Amino acid sequence: MILFVIPGSALGIVLVNTGLGSSIWTISFENITNILHIYYFEGTMYLTGLSFIRISMLLTYLRIFPGAVFRQMAFISIGLNVVCAVVFFLLSTFQCVPVSYSWHRWDGEHEGHCYNINLQIRVAAIVNILLDVAAVVLPLPQLWKMKLNTPKTLLVFLMFAIGLLVPIVSVIRLQTLLQFGNAMNVTYVYARVGYWSSAEQHLAVLCACMPAIRNLIRRFWKRSTTVTHASGSTDSSGNIANSNDTMMEAGSWPREERHSIPLKDIHNDEDRRYDRKASHTASPGSFWVHALETASPA
Fold this sequence. Notes:
Radius of gyration: 45 Å
Largest sheet: 2 strands, antiparallel
Structural class: mainly alpha
Distance between the termini: 113 Å
Strand order of the largest sheet: 1-2
Number of domains: 1
Order of helices and strands: HHHEHEHHHHEE
Shape: elongated
């Protein structure tokens, strides 16, 4: 998908620098040939790139929705896009015989012939519009059955609203082609067609990448939140530790001012003897200690 879009975007910059958008009568002959040559390659990549973008969207649908009927329709749509990509690529590549006549025919000095290029471009534009609408509308019944909550429903609605812009831009591009299809001032007219073609491609890429962009934003948001929370906890615990150290330093005595009192063992077992004499009188059911006599030390 990206392999067809990025080169087209880069070539668009080259076209503008070469003179695309200016009147053909103000551009050198060499630059006119170069513009038509680059535009030829852009046309082949444009048609093929749109088909691969739709295929990538349909493959994403297959990962999300498990319904058997839906999967059959998705595979049919993928097959149609593959067929259209191959057919339009071949028609665009061999639109003139010889191929170089596509960018040399303007000067009237080269021999060759071309097929009805305007008819081919218009048919390709109409088919692309139909396939764009099918790719956007196909998952809507499945989404309706999921019964998502309000935030997710709004997010999905936003995604498909952007998706609907793609066929709208395709219609505007088709209108431009119908208006300027037979114009002689091709370097000026092709600029307007190129604007809408580029907008259509980049909007389609954005729609195809929106699920991945959403997941990327969620992961980045979670990581940034986790790092912020962890740094706040570390700072808080560090402050607590510092305050504890301060309290310990404030409440402790200097090492050299501490005093200790040595303790000595007192052995008085040999100095004192305790004689306990007890006399008791037994009475029925009781035991009484009448006296406890302690003798003085000997």
